[in-house]
Amino acid sequence: MKYTDKPLAQVVISLCKEAQIQHIVISPGSRNAPLTLGFVNDPFFKIYSIVDERCAGFFALGIAQQLQKPVALVCTSGSALLNYYPAISEAYYSHVPLVVISADRPADFIDIGDGQTIRQANVYATHIGFSANLLDCEDVLDKQFSKNISLIREAMHNSSEKMLPVHINVPLEEPLYGLTDKRIDIAPQKTKEFVPKPAAISEITLLAKLWNQSPKKMILVGTLAPNSIDRKWIEKLAVDSSVIVLTETISNLHHPNFINSIDKLIAPLNAEELEKLKPDLLITIGGMIVSKKIKAFLRTYKPKSHWHIGKHEAYDTYFCLKGQIKCNPNEFLKIFLDDIKSQPIEYQLSWLAIREKHARKHQTFLNQIPFSDFKVFDTILASIPDNCLLQLSNSSTIRYAQLFDVNPSLQVFCNRGTSGIDGSTSTSVGAAVVCDRQTVFVSGDLSFFYDSNALWNNYIPKSFRIIVINNQGGGIFRILPGYEETANFKTYFETSHNLTAKQLCEMYGFEYTKADEMDNLNCELHQFYERSDKPKLLEIFTPRLINDKILKEYFNFIK
Fold first, then answer.
1. For domain 201-349, which architecture applies?
2. Chain centroid to CA 309: how far?
3. What integer pLDDT is reported at residue 187 of this predicted model?
4. Superfamily for the 369-557 domain
5. Would you kindly state where each structural domain of the chain is located, as residue ranges?
6. At what angle do helices 7-18 and 143-162 cross, to 10 degrees?
7. pLDDT of residue 131
8. Which helix or strand (DSSP H or E) is residue 513 part of?
């Protein structure tokens, strides 16, 4: 096997292998040629070539999201690694392990006017788990070279153990394309047996005591990977009448006694009802919360105490955080549920009854409205086959999805770390590449067109499906508070347009279909998920000027 003749690049590659980082996403360039040649020549690695670094970053994020293991990104010097930054920030807040390996000029070439050169060291400083700024040293016997090895290993460890993105900056001097038969041997790392840190029993006991003293308990579940909590703990929580469990679409947690559409529950309530809903104790599990209504409610009707359960950083989202138990939620519930007592209070039953009342009105409303975003989301979410991977874009898409019952056999994901529209399509493509389920991506038009380079990708499975709801602009800006129809609104907020995905599909080899009313939508969906020789895209055109009005009418109707 041939190896790069750059010792530092060769060591980076060897240590990726040592860390069992198998998936490598490379963006073409010259300065990173030693890294590229080394990875490509080693059959251990699965290599992907993605030209657009921004898309490459989110593509890698989609792979790592599904595997829950580090994925490496490799790029050339200069602005290339800055294009990873949106994906890095999303990975940081969503706890997705990415390893960015950026090629750089030697230190003497920085800030002297050399081409494709920026200050790369610590470039992600505020959104990274660890920065390994390697020293410009190719002498394997030098102490500095040994220090480089330690820095690389520390970066790998931080990524896998803390589930965070890390950055390894590799200075490489020309010539860059040389190969050798000589492999650099690295002394194996002395491995310590990993012993998981036990849950803080004293803190769990304290929280159990607080739980038993609190008549009304609310458990709010944010972003959570599928199958994070055992069914037996779900069942035990579900039968406690003093507890209500609120889940979101991307919590991947389901039970008939859990309330899975938070906005549908809260939006119609008056001040007296909101006071009754106010919990004494709030426990949060999982990542970021989508619902703005639950955030506003809990900030106004503050519980006496808020505790967060999870290994990663707890955020004081509701300004009443009292503590955190840093352990896996399933491990927590296993211990916690043995120490708590059920209380004879009908907190859960009363709110389940209100949920059912709102659900009936929800269906009545659906039956009487015209073709619109609201009606389309109901139709497409009901159409997705069992056991699919459902990826959702941000803004209107994830918020509409929160209003409907989603098939519990689906696994649902959305980039809610930073909630940007910038890489949703690329993330879904990366996820589809390594997932054994059919992947369905649902997106708004602006999010889709913004990330259209995601389709410039040679790895998209034939079973991949995209549904684009095209309402000719950023429809969410008509929904948000403060919206006012002005001369500048269409251009600077809504960004109205007449674009269609048809030409993109022709260019990138997608089978394209469209719908603009219920009959042909149902007809297209009937065959949309079937086997095909190409991935498919369905573009649904909805009327731009009525969607916001229908959504506002909805929340008034279900009161």
1. 3-Layer(aba) Sandwich (3.40)
2. 19
3. 84
4. Thiamin diphosphate (ThDP)-binding fold, Pyr/PP domains (3.40.50.970)
5. 3-176, 201-349, 369-557
6. 30
7. 97
8. strand 511-515
User: Is the separation of the CB atoms in 165 and 96 below 8 Å?
Assistant: yes
Q: What is the pLDDT of residue 141?
A: 83
What kind of architecture, by CATH, is found in domain 3-176?
Answer: 3-Layer(aba) Sandwich (3.40)
Which two structure tokens, joined as six digits, stand for 370? 């015209």
Let me know the angle formed at the C-alpha of 56 by 423 and 180, rounded to the nearest 5 degrees. 170
Angle, helices 53-67/85-94, rounded to nearest 10 degrees: 20
How far apart (Å, rounded) are the C-alpha atoms in residues 462 and 414?
22
Evaluate whether 106 touches 173 at the Cβ level (below 8 Å): yes
In angstroms, the CA 268 to CA 553 distance is: 11
Whether 53 contacts 28, CB under 8 Å? no
| Structure token digits, residue 66 | 């599904």
Task: Look at residue 440 and give its three-state secondary structure.
Answer: strand
- For 22, other C-beta atoms within 10 Å of its C-beta total 17
E strands in 147-247: 166-171, 179-180, 217-221, 243-247
Tokens at 439, concatenated? 């992947």
Same topology, domains 3-176 and 201-349? Answer is yes
Which residues in the chain land under pLDDT 50?
A: 194
> Scanning the structure block, which residue is given the tokens 């251990």?
44
Contacts 24+ apart (CB under 8 A), 448-453: 448/393, 448/424, 448/501, 449/497, 449/499, 449/501, 450/421, 450/422, 451/55, 451/58, 451/421, 451/422, 451/423, 451/424, 451/425, 451/426, 452/425, 452/504, 453/51, 453/52, 453/54, 453/55, 453/426
Predicted pLDDT at 477: 63
